[in-house]
Write a structure and sequence with these properties.
Distance between the termini of chain A: 47 Å
Helix content of chain B: 40-55%
CATH architecture of chain A: 3-Layer(bba) Sandwich
Largest interface: A-B, 109 and 103 residues
Distance between the termini of chain B: 20 Å
Strand order of the largest sheet of chain B: 1-2
Number of helices of chain A: 14
Oligomer: heterodimer
Number of strands of chain B: 2
Structural class of chain A: alpha/beta
Shape of chain B: globular
CATH superfamily of chain A: FAD/NAD(P)-binding domain
Number of domains of chain B: 4
Structural class of chain B: mainly alpha
Shape of chain A: globular
Radius of gyration of chain A: 23 Å
CATH topology of chain A: FAD/NAD(P)-binding domain
Strand content of chain A: 15-25%
Number of strands of chain A: 24
Largest sheet of chain A: 8 strands, mixed
Chain lengths: 626, 318
């Protein structure tokens, strides 16, 4: 018979072991980083510990199993999510992973979704942290028209305050890139790329010819943009990180990120399992609990504080893990779901009258990724061919510009704010079905006419360049996360329900920016430069909407509209405020303009939260860290 | 060597005898015409054995598809990827890939979220009829959910009152699912029902079993499925079944041979895919870091996952 087991209390209890949790684990368990205090840290995660040699090195080159079967990802029978466009609709559950629904795949186990991501990194510039203030200053009176039912909120800190945390994040994970600006002068870089106090530790990956052509085209007239090599977290050289953990370099065997999202067989692709967790393990103060599903947080009705996390072990026993302070590092909607299930923080309650909404947990959901079938620009470079079979890694070989994002161009009268990072020339390739299935099959994918289009598809004598530009999805009162009334996980608890549709800013911006990209491709000498149809309202069906969720559990400037404060500490009240829970992740990014991922914007928050937790543990009485 | 060949032959011989009892007009891919004399069959078998050394130990029969399904599905996949001057679905053994998949996790929907309620695509397609669904008890009784109750919940669709571009968009009570499967059947059952419905449509609309139709009509029939023309599928959208047919056929052509299709890597040879040959699997002396930035494509002989593992474990391979 399953029993209930109470574990020894810990100083810090970490919920979920993904990217951000790894940082908390290392920073709080290593005594030398904490005035030689030996804090006891326990981290609990629903999946296994992945060992890249044993688990990946001989079985990962398998598109059917990894890319489509998602054998390293979170099993859907365990839990799923439901999705709808408007609050008046029934939300359908995601029932399976397949092209292109595989984009929903949650990570599973230590390292989380970063086991399968593309390694995209970079920095969010000053504008992204103050979108509301900057827009109201430069384009006064426009935001409510640009974003109906606007719910935009600025970050609690500015870019320069996050800059030291970016450095910590980058040095721990070994980022590749080359910063062109001046390290000494914060205002020196005109490219829009944010000022950096030190350059990336590792050089960028080799550039493709298409990337070099893009680079030379956009850096000259009439564009005069500021290209730089793509920044990623796939080690280009051997590296020893800031915790002394050795890192193997990329072996360029393909089967990396991209649509198929493979795990890395050498650990070159950064994630918690191979950067921060090994450091925590070595500290002697850290306990890792795997294959254990957290289903509730217990709270003290008098103080409002979280007292313990409850989880099921694989035998069905219930464990109670008491702690002094808790870090919520679960991915996306699971961070929200555990709080809603447990009554921690004020749940967001939607109302058709936007002035009558209340609560914050689940509020301000945005989609940080490009719409899968969004506004796409493509062209053909006839004189550059190449191998489109697995080669390189997910995020290398391309050149990016920031000139068409943030407020780096005048938006007067354009009807949108922000824009896109545009990158061109990444290594082609992925799994064998990647090119065939990337857009899903259709009635056109059959018969004697279609088959020849696939012949020598991986041996390209021409290069197709493409980009999917868009402006940032902005938070509105109508996009949110709550608990689904109809569907439950394997243990009987309600699933997270996403109410979401593309916002106007996203597709108006996409249309404008597509023409800018079209000009670039044409100047590059591409033929057949075409702009595909744009995204439109009601189009965010649950088979292909994006997966980089942001903002549903956001940090912000006021407890009435955000869950976490400037230390990523909970200030969302229920009856009392649960001060002893902190959280960080892509879902806590309140807004932002750096695409396509929000991981690198969440990263500095994890270091900020680690500092906040250290200070909280030194407080005499529970409360907000000043 | 002699013993090995004999064992393989015995395996095939048994399969042929068993099939011949149940079906006289069915083509068993390894044997060709079942009506030929036993001696011809034996000769054919020995010839094919010699040609199929690579696949004979992995794929020699069916574990899930029924005799009638084999015959029908074989023609469907050959319509989707026909054999021309290059190999098609037939040579790749796509039907074996699908057979294995239907018998395994795919057919069992083992990695799918299968709980009810199941709101089928053909239900509540208009916003004139609200969709009324009971809540689960676990939701209704959770004290942390504001406003939760056990009363049925009514979904009306309609539009939210947001001004701007989206204003006036009328939404169905049920969000569009696209290809997101919403049926209460696992995939093995879905295919069973779908193949029967397809055959029924072939007879009613084209006057005969799918296998007997002209190749033009076979392709047209599959297009009819995508257009949701047939009514024989009841509450299943024919296009949902068509999606599975086409998707799984291409998967059988392109996935690693370890799953039963893409036999002898003909799909990879056709598409110019390298599998796990990163430039030096057969001693070509190429370097992946150079290949990935090359401007002229290099054709590499593909290598399979099994070959890679054999090489990695030191037991030969290349």
């Amino acid at each position: 018979m399953p029993t209930t087991i109470t574990e020894p209390a810990a100083d810090v209890v970490i919920l979920g072991v993904g990217y951000m949790s790894g940082v908390i684990a290392a920073e709080l368990s290593i005594a030398s980083l904490n005035n030689n205090k030996n804090y006891k840290v326990v981290a609990i995660t629903k999946g296994p510990y992945w060992d890249y040699v044993n688990d990946f090195s001989t079985t990962k080159y398998d598109e059917w199993g990894v890319g489509l079967g998602r054998k390293y990802d979170s099993p859907l029978p365990l839990q799923s999510t439901t999705i709808r466009n408007t609050p008046y609709q029934f939300a359908l559950p995601v029932r399976r992973y397949t092209m292109p629904i595989q984009y929903h795949a949650l990570g599973h186990g230590v390292g989380g979704a970063a086991q399968h991501y593309g390694g995209t990194m970079g920095r969010q510039g000053p504008w992204g942290y103050q979108m509301l203030l900057q827009t109201n200053t430069r384009y006064p009176g426009t935001i409510d028209t640009i974003n109906p039912h606007n719910d935009l909120e600025d970050w609690p800190l500015q870019y320069y305050q996050y800059e030291p945390y970016y450095v910590q994040w980058e040095n721990a994970h070994g980022l590749c890139g080359n910063y062109n600006g001046s390290i000494d002068n914060p205002g020196s870089d005109a490219s829009g790329y944010p000022w950096m106090s030190q350059n990336y530790k590792l050089p960028p990956h080799p550039l493709t010819s298409a990337a070099q052509l893009f680079q030379s085209t956009v850096s000259s007239a009439p564009f005069n943009y500021h290209p730089f090599p793509h920044v990623n977290a796939l080690a280009s050289q051997p590296y020893v990180n800031s915790y002394g953990v050795p890192v193997n370099p990329c072996v360029y065997d393909g089967y990396c990120g991209g649509p198929c999202d493979y795990a890395c067989e050498t650990g070159a692709k950064a994630n918690a399992a191979y950067r921060t967790i090994p450091a925590a393990m070595k500290s002697g103060n850290f306990t890792l609990v795997v294959n254990s599903f957290i289903f509730r947080l217990d709270t003290d009705p008098t103080s409002g504080l979280v007292t313990a996390a409850r989880y099921y072990d694989p035998q069905g026993n219930v464990h109670i893990q008491p702690g002094t302070v808790f870090f919520n590092g679960m991915w996306g909607y699971n961070m929200i779901r555990i709080m809603l299930l447990s009554g921690v923080g004020a749940p967001y309650v939607w109302n058709s009258d936007p002035t009558l909404v209340s609560g914050t947990v689940g509020r301000g959901l945005t989609n940080g990724y490009s719409p899968f079938k969004g506004t796409n620009v493509s062209g053909t470079l006839s004189n550059i061919g190449g191998n489109a079979y697995p080669a390189g890694n997910a995020g290398g070989g391309s050149v990016d510009i920031y000139d068409l994002m943030d407020d780096n161009f005048d938006h007067t009268g354009l009807g949108f704010i922000g824009g896109s990072q545009i990158g061109v020339g990444g290594y082609p390739g992925g799994g064998p079905g990647n090119i065939t299935f990337a857009g899903g099959v259709s009635s056109a994918s059959m018969g004697p006419q279609f088959k020849p289009s696939q012949k020598d598809k991986y041996l390209q004598t021409k290069t197709i360049v493409s980009a999917t530009p868009f402006a940032p999805d902005l938070p509105t009162k109508d996009n949110y996360v709550d608990l689904d009334p109809h569907y439950a996980d394997i243990y009987g608890d309600p699933l997270a329900r996403l109410t979401y549709d593309w916002t106007q800013n996203m597709y108006i911006g996409a249309t404008y920016l597509a023409n800018k990209v079209k000009d670039i491709f044409t100047k590059m000498g591409a033929s057949n430069v075409t702009v595909s149809s744009t995204v439109s309202p009601g189009a965010a069906h649950n088979d292909w909407w994006g997966h980089h969720l942001r903002g549903g559990c956001r940090i912000g400037t006021a407890p009435a509209s955000s869950v976490w404060d400037k230390w990523n500490q909970c200030w969302s009240p229920t009856v009392k405020t649960p001060f002893n829970i902190f959280g960080a992740g892509e879902i806590t990014n309140t807004s932002g303009d750096t695409v396509p991922s929000g991981t690198h914007v969440a990263g500095p928050q994890s270091y900020r939260a680690a500092e906040g937790i250290k200070q909280y543990l030194g407080l005499m009485t529970p409360g907000l860290v000043p | 060597m002699v013993d090995q060949t004999r064992r393989e032959f015995l395996k095939l011989g048994l399969a042929a005898a068993a099939s011949a009892v149940t079906a006289s007009a069915i083509e068993i891919p390894l044997f060709g015409n079942q009506n030929s004399s036993m001696q011809t069959q034996l000769n054919n078998a020995n010839t094919q054995l010699a040609n199929l050394k690579n696949r004979v130990n992995t794929v020699v029969g069916f574990v899930s598809l029924s005799v009638t399904e084999q015959s029908l599905l074989e023609k469907i996949v050959e319509t989707i990827i026909p054999t021309d001057s290059d190999p098609g679905a037939k040579e790749a053994g796509v039907i074996f890939f699908i057979d294995r998949a239907l018998a395994g996790d795919y057919g069992q929907s083992a990695n799918m979220f299968m709980d009810g309620p199941h709101i089928l695509p053909r239900i509540a397609a208009s916003n004139s009829t609200p969709l009324v669904v009971n809540p689960t008890l676990s939701w209704a009784t959770n004290p942390n959910i504001p406003g939760a109750s056990t009363s049925p919940i009514s979904y009306t669709g309609g539009s939210i009152s947001t001004p701007g571009v989206g204003a006036g968009i009328t939404a169905s009570p049920r969000v569009g699912s696209g290809i997101n499967y919403q049926y209460p059947l696992n995939f093995r059952e879905f295919w069973r029902v779908g193949l029967v419905a397809l055959q029924a449509y072939a007879n009613s609309a084209y006057g005969g079993n799918f296998e007997t139709l002209s190749s033009t009509n076979q392709l047209q029939l599959l297009k009819d499925l995508w257009a949701n023309t047939p009514t024989s599928f009841s509450n299943i959208l024919p296009s949902d079944f068509a999606y599975e047919l086409v998707f799984m056929t291409w998967a059988g052509f392109l996935m690693d041979p370890i799953y039963g299709g893409n036999q002898n890597m003909v799909g990879w040879t056709y598409t110019g895919f390298n599998g796990v040959n990163f430039g030096n699997f057969y001693g070509e002396g190429q370097d992946q870091k150079t290949l990935m930035v090359a401007t002229i494509p290099t054709r590499l002989k593909p290598a399979s996952l099994a070959q890679y593992q054999q090489q990695a474990s030191g037991s030969g391979g290349a």
